[in-house]
Design a protein that fits this description.
Blueprint: E1 6-10, H1 15-28, E2 31-38, H2 48-55, E3 59-64, H3 66-80, E4 83-84, E5 88-89, H4 92-110, E6 114-117, H5 125-136, E7 141-144, H6 156-165, E8 178-183, E9 186-191, H7 223-237, H8 243-267, H9 269-274, H10 290-311, H11 314-335, H12 342-346, H13 352-362, H14 367-390, H15 392-397, H16 403-406, H17 409-434, H18 439-463, H19 473-497
Parallel strand pairs: 1-2, 1-6, 2-3, 6-7
Antiparallel strand pairs: 4-5, 8-9
Helix pairs in contact: 1-6, 4-5, 7-8, 7-13, 7-19, 8-10, 8-11, 8-13, 10-11, 11-13, 13-14, 14-17, 14-19, 17-18, 18-19
Length: 498
């Protein structure tokens, strides 16, 4: 056996590559550097750093290869109408040479003398990996574990037991022993029940689509509007408000938000065309002429004002129109492209729904809705900055100075902690101001502690030097959505009990 000092492993976080890390160390006594390619897997990459280190890797590289995969591999295949054996569409295989190419580059950078992959000894992936290795550096030793005589894990069940014995977290179980491969072009599974073509796929495998039987058959109301408007109406009514007023307020508020979003889409079409997650929207694709979009947005705005005015009152209608004007003229046209504080002050537009809901019931503004307004105001920056961490390169490419673009991760994470603490403190102010019972402050405090803990964890990861997916910012982003929903739900339920 040739002596090996350092190996770069093509790592996915799946079962095979998770057990290969300790196997390489035990078999060769070498250092293992894990490398994962960001091919569009999204949030699947976030836990990889922690998993790789726990499995025994000395470090993990995550390289963003999405643009190269699309431009140099997927598009040429589409242009050539390439189909394997005239019936099998290419997807997983397209990325293998690209993964191997970057793997060799990392091996050179790290001074590694070997590379390794998790492809089995009977498939074509081993050929794709190893031909690329040999073409780029024939002197690198290739460790194809499944072909090594020392490799004794001949089934997924054995690999799962091997992982359990070493406390290695793996994404499969004995009950679901299949593996998944995903990139921006496809999602595929293998193993387990799929070994028998007669078996139907597990419904949980459909991560990118929804079973039509389970898909919602009603229009989806803008979440922030629903979460913050209706609870304010319950709090204002001291119980259940008139259902007709709730319906008209939600319809009018939804149309108002739609109007603002239409104007934003037209004004930001150039930005959206530069960002991967937005470039497929109608305006960047020129699917809708700008003039027609403006007319559509204006019609939505007029309908929103009329419905809120006649269905609730004109104070609510004027607040909705003020929020729209602020969002379009102050945030979209003024702040978004000019300052890293864009979302801090631009987010004011999203704070209006509690005011609109309260005034729809009472016809006047009071301190409780202003506190709700403040909760959303201080909640917005950490929520949005967490998302901006994930799409930092998109914002940079579009020249939008979101805070994570212009400031180091630890500095941004520290500000997230500060705003989170303020958000929680402000949420507790509602207790004496609205004279709620014990339910609201108890829920607000518990949910707030969870939010603060997660924001501190983000700060620790940032200070440890983690970046990109390893920073795991989407955990805070999703948690912040749940936090706001829970706090406002508690504000709505409390008056029903006390």
């Amino acid at each position: 056996m040739k002596q090996v000092k350092k190996v770069v492993l093509a790592y996915s976080g799946g079962l095979d590559t998770s057990v290969i890390i300790p196997w390489l160390k035990e078999t060769y006594g070498c250092e293992v550097i894990a490398y994962a390619a960001d091919l569009g897997q999204g949030e699947e990459l976030e836990p990889l750093h922690e998993k790789a280190i726990k499995s025994g890797a000395s470090k993990l590289y995550i390289e963003d290869l999405k643009d190269e995969l699309w431009n140099d591999f997927i598009l040429p295949v589409l242009r050539a109408d390439a189909v394997y054996e005239h019936k099998y569409l290419l997807a997983t295989s397209l990325a293998r040479p690209l993964i191997a190419k970057k793997q060799v580059e990392i091996a050179h950078k790290e001074g590694a003398d070997a590379v390794s992959h998790g492809a089995t000894g009977k498939g074509n992936d081993q050929v794709r990996f190893e031909l690329t290795y040999k073409a780029l550096d024939p002197d690198l030793k290739v460790i194809a574990c499944w072909r090594e005589p020392e490799w004794t894990l001949t089934s997924r069940e054995e690999a799962i037991e091997y992982a359990k014995a070493r406390n290695i977290p793996v994404p499969v179980t004995a009950a679901k022993p299949y593996s998944m491969d995903r990139n921006l072009w496809h999602l595929s599974f293998e193993g387990g029940i799929l070994e028998d073509p007669a078996n139907a796929p597990d419904p949980e495998m459909f991560l990118l689509t929804t079973d039509p039987e389970k898909a919602p058959d009603k229009p989806r109301i803008i979440e922030l509007l629903l979460v913050t408007t209706v609870p304010a109406m319950f709090l204002a009514a001291g119980g259940v408000p008139e259902w007709q007023k709730v319906v008209w307020t939600l319809i009018g508020g939804t149309l108002a938000a739609g109007s603002a979003n239409v104007f934003n889409s037209v004004l930001d079409a150039d930005i959206d065309s530069e960002m991967r997650r937005t470039r497929r929207r109608p305006m960047p694709l020129n699917s809708v002429p700008p003039a027609r979009a403006y007319v559509f947005g204006a019609v939505l705005g007029v309908l929103a004002a009329l419905i809120l005015g006649f269905g609730a009152n004109w104070l609510s209608a004027s607040l909705a129109m003020t929020a729209n004007a602020y969002y379009v003229f102050v945030y979209t046209m003024g702040l978004k492209r000019r300052t890293s504080q864009n979302i801090v002050w631009g987010g004011i537009a999203g704070c209006f729904p509690p005011l609109i809901g309260w005034t729809a019931v009472t016809g006047s503004i009071a301190w409780p809705p202003l506190v709700l307004f403040a909760i959303v105001f201080f909640w917005t920056p950490p929520h949005t900055w967490a998302l901006a961490f994930r799409y930092k390169e998109d914002y940079r490419q579009a020249h939008v100075p979101m805070l994570p673009v212009v400031m180091a991760p630890p500095a941004v994470a520290w500000r997230i902690v500060v705003y989170t603490v303020i958000t929680v403190a402000v949420s507790l102010v509602l207790w004496p101001v609205a004279q709620t019972g014990w339910l609201y402050p108890a829920v607000a405090l518990i949910a707030g502690v969870v939010m603060i803990v997660e924001s501190i964890q983000l700060l620790r990861r940032a200070r440890a030097g983690l970046t990109e997916a390893a920073l795991r910012p989407m955990r805070l982003f999703h948690l912040s959505n749940s936090y706001l929903a829970v706090v406002f739900l508690a504000a709505a339920v409390d008056p029903l009990i006390f």
